[in-house]
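Input sequence (103 aa), recorded before submission:
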Amino acid sequence: FLILSCSSVGFSQTQEIIIQTTAQCGECKEIIEKALMAEKGVRFAELDVKSKQAKVVYNSKKITPEQLRQTIALAGYDADNVPADSAAVLRLSPCCTKDGHRE
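Predicted structure, token format:
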């Protein structure tokens, strides 16, 4: 079944990506998932708080991996090699920042 799923993904424009974030808690999960799901072309987004990884299923004709990373960064979190937007970080609860507090 897994082989079939992967091959069917290859024929459509549906892609899957895992993005490493700096999420800390359930509030972070809600913020990131909501931001991703608001993007045109995103079909599924789920953040695992323990691993800090966001799994995103998206239409590659409508959005790119770099745009997905930028969406997370604009929500206030690092996304792979894309740093969090500093203004967005200031809007987060202190527990949601990468070190768990603001300086």
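Checked by second reader. The first helix runs from residue 2 to 11.
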